[in-house]
Amino acid sequence: MADLTPLLAFRWSPHSFDPIAEVTSAEVTTLLEAARWAPSVDNRQPWRFAVGHREEETFKHILVNLPASEQRWAGRASVLLLAAEHTTDNPFATYDLGQAVAHLTVQATALGLHVRQVTEFDRRGLITDLDLPSDVRPYVVTAIGQLGDPFSLPADLLRHETSLRHRQPLGELVMSCANSPS
Ligand SMILES: Cc1cc2nc3c(=O)[nH]c(=O)nc-3n(C[C@H](O)[C@H](O)[C@H](O)COP(=O)(O)O)c2cc1C
Questions:
Q1: Number of C-alpha atoms within 13 angstroms, CB side, residue 179?
Q2: Taking 60 as the threshold, does the pLDDT of residue 182 lie above it?
Q3: What's the chain's average pLDDT?
Q4: DSSP letter at 150?
Q5: pLDDT tens digits, residue range 17-40?
Q6: What is the DSSP letter of 41?
Q7: Closest C-alpha to ligand 1, atom 20
Q8: What is the set of domains in the chain, with CATH numbers?
Q9: Structure confidence by residue, pLDDT tens digits, 64-108
Q10: Distance 118 CA to ligand 1 centre (A)
Q11: Terminus of the chain with fewer CB atoms < 10 Å: N or C?
Q12: Which residues contact 145 (CB under 8 A, 6 or more apart)?
């Protein structure tokens, strides 16, 4: 990881968020700007967002639609942000939304914040609770905040939090193609 830009090298997804820390509206705007300036197929920008700061109704609506196992840690985040696809006959919407959220995570690192994403949640419940338009498909919830005390986590999450992160070696990811030099 030595040669990576620090913004990428220092990004990781914690479960432990500081339950007191606040993420300001200005910081959230910066995160959304980072997402907004992501590239997309034909510049269609098929992303929509719903933002809930802790104590706000939107935060509570997002939180209650997460599985109980995720609520254990996500409730401590400063912001829960729903990222959704704008579904207008765009086969690349999911790809583009992923890029937008990736931009957001890098910008979060630049602000000294952390992000953990969750795709497992009650989509129908969230559509109802947030009264989302019919052409919007909830895709991922991002929990955003400052790093908290990992020892405040339940034992299984603490174990996860303090384990080494792994990636497949490049040798398994880069395919050797017929015309590659041997
Ligand atoms: C699309 C997506 C969905 C994820 N869903 C969950 C989830 O449901 N619960 C969870 O605890 N982490 C979730 N994660 C976090 C991943 O487990 C985490 O990014 C991965 O283990 C790599 O760790 P790192 O982000 O610290 O490098 C998700 C991440 C992504 C990108």
A1: 0
A2: no
A3: 96
A4: G
A5: 999 999 999 999 999 999 999 999
A6: G
A7: 13
A8: 31-156 (3.40.109.10)
A9: 999 999 999 999 999 999 999 998 899 999 999 999 999 999 999
A10: 6
A11: C
A12: 17, 18, 21, 23, 76, 77, 78, 79, 113, 114
Give the span between the Cα atoms of 48 and 56, in whole angstroms. Answer: 19
**H/E run at residue 6:** helix 6-9
pTM of the model: 0.96
Place of tokens 């700061």: 53
For position 181, what pLDDT does the model report? 60
Q: CB neighbours of 83 closer than 8 A, spacing ≥ 6?
A: 35, 47, 48, 49, 97, 100, 101, 104, 139, 140, 141, 142
Nearest CA to ligand 1 atom 22: 13
**Ligand 1 center to 142 CA (angstroms):** 10
Cβ 12 under 6 angstroms from ligand 1: yes
The confidence score (pLDDT) of residue 177 equals: 85
Residue 116 beta carbon below 6 angstroms from any ligand 1 atom:
yes
